[in-house]
Each structure stands twice: as structure tokens, then as C-alpha cells.
Amino acid sequence: MDSLLGYRIFLAVADCASFSEAARQMALTPTKVSRAIADLEAGLGFALLERTTRRVVLTELGARFAQRIKPAVASLLSASSETENVSDINNFNEVRVA
Questions:
Q1: Strand runs (DSSP E) across 1-98, as ranges?
Q2: 32-51 confidence digits (pLDDT tens)
Q3: Cβ count within 10 A of residue 27
Q4: Please, are residues 61 and 41 in contact by the beta-carbon 8 Å criterion?
Q5: CA 70 to CA 12: how far, in whole Å?
Q6: 3-class secondary structure, 4
Q7: By the number of CB atoms within 10 A of the CB, which of 38, 40, 47, 54 ranks highest?
């Protein structure tokens, strides 16, 4: 899975305090969200979230991690969007001669 997507999923779960709500907001299945969080935690080597049947809470490390990555993820998404807009403009100005 794309790391940026994994970070976005984690931030959505952290903001919603719910796997199912994060999945709904991102148009993903709850299974995909759960798997993305598990993969991210395995890659980092620590738990980001404390899960019970009734709630999802950030661990101390999870809260710090979310605080650190949130601006970086927003910046990357903004840069990606700006690049797509420039690409769209360049494609619009392209003239094709048959």
C-alpha cells in the first residue's frame, strides 16, 4: 500500500475515532482501513491506536505521530493537487495536428 494513503487513513481514523466512519469518509471498506492501520503499525514497530469493541483511542505515540505527520500529509496532498492542475492546463493548451 502507498505510504501516503496509509498515513491518510490513520489520520482519518484518529480524527473520527472510528474505523467504520473513517472508511465511510474515504470510500473504503472497514477491512481495508483496518489492514492499512495494522500494516502501518507493523512497519513503525509500535501501536498507534488502542482498540476496544466500543471505541478507538490514540496511544501516546499515536498522538505524537499524528501531530507530526498531519502537516506533512497536508503539504504533500496540496503539492500533488497543484501539480495535477498544472498538468491539466498544459494538456488543455496542447494543439494536435492530424
A1: 49-51, 56-58
A2: 999 999 999 999 999 999 99
A3: 6
A4: no
A5: 10
A6: helix
A7: 40
Whole-number Å distance between alpha carbons of 3 and 30: 18
36 and 1 Cβ atoms separated by less than 8 Å: yes
| 0.85 exceeded by pTM | no
Cell 494543439 appears where?
95
How many angstroms separate the CA atoms of 57 and 44, rounded? 18
Burial category of 32 from C-beta neighbours within 10 Å (exposed 0-12, middle 13-18, buried 19 and up): middle
CB 23 within 8 A of CB 29: yes
Decide: 29 and 21 in contact? Cβ < 8 Å.
no
For cell 507530526, what's the residue?
A: 68
**Do residues 5 and 36 make contact, with C-beta atoms less than 8 angstroms apart?**
yes
Whose cell is 492530424? That residue is 98
**Amino acid of residue 11:** L
Which three cell numbers, joined as nine digits, stand for 72? 506533512
